Amino acid sequence: MINIMLCCASGMSTSLLVEKMKKAAAEEGVEVNIWAVGANEVKANATKADIILLGPQVRYAQKKIESEAPGVPVANIGMREYGMMNGKAVLAQAIELCKK
């Protein structure tokens, strides 16, 4: 089971992406727990995550989020993948980063 936390300004814009990622995971037979939070909720949720993916609107806060989630990989979701809500590609990114 991979625990993937998506982070955006308020947790709302990533909600659709979460659903698309869950659908892609089900199609690929990958066990995941995916949820979205606002940037101000990262610290409270960091211990539950294996990886944190940031939406474009909070990529400026990557260093701060990394400090709030020590030991948890933090990465930016690509602008194209985010804009197109490409759940399959973002899921693949998360899985690849968890392997490192």
UniProtKB/TrEMBL annotation:
Xref: InterPro entries: PTS_EIIB-like_sf (IPR036095), PTS_EIIB_2/3 (IPR003501), PTS_EIIB_3 (IPR013012), PTS_sugar-specific_EIIB (IPR051819)
SUPFAM superfamilies on file: PTS system IIB component-like
Any Gene Ontology biological process: phosphoenolpyruvate-dependent sugar phosphotransferase system
CDD domains according to UniProt: PTS_IIB_chitobiose_lichenan
Residues bearing PTM Phosphocysteine: C8
A Pfam family per the record: PTS_IIB
Domain PTS EIIB type-3 span(s) in chain numbering: 1-100
Gene Ontology molecular-function annotations: kinase activity; protein-N(PI)-phosphohistidine-sugar phosphotransferase activity
Keywords of the record: Kinase, Phosphoprotein, Phosphotransferase system, Sugar transport, Transferase, Transport
Coiled-coil region list: none
Protein's recorded name: PTS system cellobiose-specific IIB component
Classification lineage: Bacteria, Bacillati, Bacillota, Erysipelotrichia, Erysipelotrichales
